[in-house]
Model the fold of this input.
Amino acid sequence: MIQNNLTFFAALAFVFLLIGCGGGSSSSENRPPVVSNSSVPAPLPRECILQPVVAVATDAPLITLNGDRVIDIPLGGTYLDAGAIAKDQNGNDLTSLISTTGLDKINTNQQADYFIRYDVKDSAGRIAASKHRIVRVFTNTPKKYSLRPFDSTSAPMGFLEHLPVYIGSEPHKQYPLLIVAHGWEHFVQQSPVNNRLLTLQYGANIYRVFDENRWPDSRPFIVLEPQRCLDIGDNEWHQVDQLIEWALAAYPVDPQRIYMTGMSAGGYFTYRYPLLYPNRLAAIAPMSAGGPVENPTAITQFCKAMTQLPIWAFHGDADSTVPVNHTFYTIDILKQQCLTSPTPKVTIVSNGDHVIANQIWDDSYIGKGDLKYDRQSESIYDWFLRFTLDKTNE
Done:
């Protein structure tokens, strides 16, 4: 660990470097197309403008799905939607007023996962909470992952999605949700206008785990990697929280098992999210980043949020973009001032540069790590599943 007499100014410099460079990726990354800069600030893309959340009143109507929430259809088969029913708080039938979106997108001749959404409002204009159905069209194995551009769903962001192979096989089962926070080069403004999500397939991103068949079919996580926006302040965190709210409605998510991991700028995002939205995550695994510990006030807030949050940090000891001292200093704060329980884990990738996340996410680093710290003794996914929001198990 770094020395206890590390000055406040050195710590502050660490954090400013992290925020200023966004945890930029090293030259070893496969870089996306460069986005040209202009002296005139460009307007925010539509997907970066935070939308107001429509509150669902306590006396709003209620929609109930007919049939299962997840439907499997063989490629080339026929899909007949079972629909939904709706009633207001007085028991009046509103089923005929339900609006259904997404049915026209279903093509049973094309393997994909399709969303159907059901909405209704009563005569007083009270809007019901939307209900969703997922229709999976496939022959033998469902699609490994889907790219969900902004506006292709009712979600507040574009994102990469992976669904468990056997999702829906047990109608009432709920699944853990893993949010993956990308690094600097993958923000909306760093991506081509005609294909924003293209950059989520470059560099350090979890899509490779699915694309290269390194994700066991038995692993139960719903995985979402949202594409975040630059220069929108705390709205960057707020949009992701909105996405999590959307996911809780759209998928059979277990709200007690929501986890987050991220690298570089995404690692910093992962550390800071629990400060803004406490009691949401069951565990986190930040990589190649430090936390928001730039001054005593920030440290106090950090400790308050992290007291009982399980944390497993990873960093390369040869990282020249965000030095490993970012992690050492943050973990020292967690252990010595926050007195976090369970005790935070830290794995140092020997000779690892900035881009270490892929080997953690694909399990290829298991059994390795600098022996002075915590070796990666297990998959981070198995480690995540040991914790729930209402109870931790060390």
Remarks:
- The domain at 55-140 is CATH 2.60.40.10 (Immunoglobulin-like).
- DSSP finds eight helices and 16 strands in the chain.
- The helical segments are 8-21, 207-211, 235-250, 265-276, 296-306, 325-336, 357-361, 380-384.
